[in-house]
Amino acid sequence: MPNFDLTARDARELWEGMYSSGHGHVWSGRPNPALVDAIADLTPGTALDLGCGEGGDVLHLARLGWRVTGVDVSDTAIARAAAHAAEAGVGDLTRFERHDLGQSFPAGLFDLVTASFLHSFAFLDRTAVLARAARSVAPGGSLLVLGHHVVPEEQAARWRAEGAEVDLPSPGELRRRLALPEAEWTVARELLVERTTTGEDGSTAAGQDGVLRLDRR
After folding, report:
1. Does CATH place domain 11-216 in 3.40.50.150?
2. What is the C-alpha to C-alpha distance for residues 51 and 19, in angstroms, rounded to an integer?
3. 84 close to 59: Cβ distance less than 8 angstroms
4. Could you count the other beta carbons within 10 Å of the beta carbon of residue 94?
5. Burial of 215 (0-12, 13-18, 19+ CB in 10 A)
6. For residues 144 and 60, is the Cβ–Cβ distance under 8 A?
7. What CA dihedral angle connects 45, 39, 210 and 50, to 10 degrees?
8. CB 4, CB 22: distance < 8 Å
9. For residues 52 and 154, which has the higher predicted lDDT (pLDDT)?
10. Does the record carry S-adenosyl-L-methionine as a key word (predicted)?
11. In the chain, where the domains are located
């Protein structure tokens, strides 16, 4: 699990500090398996990935033929994602923008808007950002949100010790909070998936992630 400086003054400082504290990949570079499964039936079009990090999901979508805009608050993350896209030969299908999503948002409508594990210890009203994301979905498009729901106790204890509070609603609770008009949206997926994490000592722990895909009529 990456280390965060919880004394950071804003989102950019928090996430830039995390990405710039090491060298190379912070994440694996592979797409999130739940995203791979959840978008498999969709026809490629335009996509927006919120909190794209180093670009694992962006690259997967681009390889499938999507034209993808990746967004992150960290300059280091965006630079790495753009470099990885160029190395993978999908640079012409990808573009990257830096946004603090609590302050600014990409312009336009998209056939798919994704937010994978867009959690933050501070500086982000996640529900408000996801409501804004829903307004960026074109008619006939989809909103996909992946999020932690149950984290291993060791991780939760560490967050508590550092004074961090992270809201981890279930997919159903998140849908209710978004309160999108039922006449305009259908629930394509709403489920919990099991996740196993491996600690630095090789020990494993179980958790749960939520998957919510809403399709706009």
Report:
1. yes
2. 13
3. yes
4. 25
5. middle
6. no
7. -30
8. no
9. 52
10. yes
11. 11-216
